[in-house]
Design a protein that fits this description.
Blueprint (H helix, E strand, L loop, with lengths): L1 H30 L4 H99 L5 H13 L2 H33 L7 E3 L1 H11 L1 H4 L3 E6 L6 E3 L1 H23 L6 E10 L2 E8 L29 H12 L3 E7 L3 E9 L7
Parallel strand pairs: 2-4
Antiparallel strand pairs: 1-3, 4-5, 5-7, 6-7
Helix pairs in contact: 1-2, 2-3, 2-4, 4-5, 5-7, 7-8
Bound molecules: adenosine-5'-triphosphate and magnesium ion (MG).
Length: 352
């Protein structure tokens, strides 16, 4: 797009030059004073040339605008495709994440069901006992069989463990609900308009659903500062953050590979006047000097097919820089790690 704008600018400069040259000729002609009529003729000719050139430029400008629109639509499509791809890839991880707590819930509920069967047997006996007592019948036999049943079904154990089992089930459900909420938030199609959003909450959701991408290789350390609501396209920012987190996980995976060691991914948010900052730092191998210039290029990747397509950073830069008027920068040291920093205006000046 920058190229097309350059071409147009060069054409405009060329037009200005042509007009200036023509003007000089007219002036020269007037001074050297040919007949008034030939000057008049010359003027008309010049006006025609200028009119034709202007028409041509207008057509070029319209073409350029149309091309820019097509390009913009393609970018949106590409981003949407990458988001769908990410959601697809994350789906397996999310299913896995949900599976563990669901297992808790299911085990705990099985225990509760068995305990309930034993308890209802005991309660029936206990009622027989109380009925005998109420009727003033000899209650000794009923009391004995009640006690026997209590022993048999290990009533003390059941009563001790029922509460915790229900708590575990509730905890498991809470985790499932959390993951599902995070997924919904992440996958939300978002509106065409920017809207004020809680970035800390959005980042926490993105980290929840991406957990399977990093939790085997890295500890996650979060440090959220109090932030104002930030006017943004939240779905796109979620995608950008996800891309950076997945890159961090890959960088760490490469250095810890096979060693059983784990790295650290630190996610920090900061409020700085009319800007907010999000930093995603990893303890991976760092970015080699010779590729630093290229990492934001679309389709530049050092990863094997199936692991990366080279779109992550290009899309993140596009979202942060072009759409939100923010900045995406990084510092990286070989063997130490990399920190990517997103800097966003709280209220973008020229929201798209
Ligand atoms: N945190 C990081 N540490 C080390 N290298 C990185 C890091 N982030 C990006 N890179 C380098 O930059 C390249 C481009 O990253 P980018 O996210 O654009 O593409 P990708 O991760 O290769 O593929 P995709 O994101 O499309 O799955 C990566 O292939 C990697 O070499
Ligand atoms: Mg990537």
């Amino acid at each position: 797009m920058a190229d097309a704008a350059d071409v147009l600018e060069r054409k405009l400069a060329a037009r200005d030059k042509t007009i200036a040259a023509l003007m000089r000729r007219v002036e020269g002609a007037t001074v050297s004073n040919n007949s008034a009529f030939s000057t008049f003729e010359e003027n008309i000719r010049l006006e025609q040339v200028v009119a034709r050139k202007t028409e041509e430029l207008k057509a070029a400008q319209e073409r350029l605008l149309r091309e820019m629109e097509v390009q913009r639509a393609l970018e949106v499509e590409l981003r949407q495709a990458q988001k769908l791809e990410a959601v697809g890839r994350l789906a397996a991880g999310v299913a896995h994440e949900i599976n563990t707590p669901v297992q808790y819930v299911s085990d705990s509920l099985s225990f509760v069901r068995e305990a309930l069967a034993d308890l209802s047997g005991y309660i029936a006996k206990a009622r027989e006992l109380s009925a005998a007592v109420v009727a003033d019948d000899p209650a000794n036999a009923a009391a004995q069989s009640c006690e026997a049943l209590a022993e048999e079904s290990d009533l003390d154990y059941l009563l001790e463990n029922l509460g915790p089992a229900v708590d575990r089930a509730l905890g498991g459900l809470e985790r499932v609900a959390n993951i599902v909420r995070a997924l919904k938030r992440f996958a939300h199609p978002g509106s065409a308009q920017m809207a004020p959003a809680d970035l800390n909450e959005a980042i926490a959701s993105t980290l929840t659903i991406a957990a399977n991408e990093y939790k085997y290789v890295a500890e996650l350390v979060t440090d959220y500062a109090e932030l104002p609501l930030v006017t943004c396209h939240l779905g796109d920012l979620n995608q950008a953050v996800l891309n950076l987190v997945v890159n961090a996980a890959h960088a760490i995976a490469d250095v810890v590979a096979g060693s059983g060691a784990r790295g650290t991914i630190s996610v920090r948010t900061r409020h700085d006047g009319d800007h907010v900052q999000v930093e995603i730092a990893d303890t991976g191998g760092g970015i080699p000097d010779e590729i630093r210039e290229r990492i934001f290029e679309p389709f530049f990747t050092t990863k094997e097919v199936g692991r990366g397509t080279g779109q992550g950073l290009a899309i993140a830069r596009n979202v942060i820089h072009d759409d939100h008027g923010g900045e995406l920068s990084f510092v990286s040291e070989r063997g130490v790690g990399t920190t990517f920093r997103i800097r966003l205006p709280v209220t973008p000046l020229r929201p798209r």
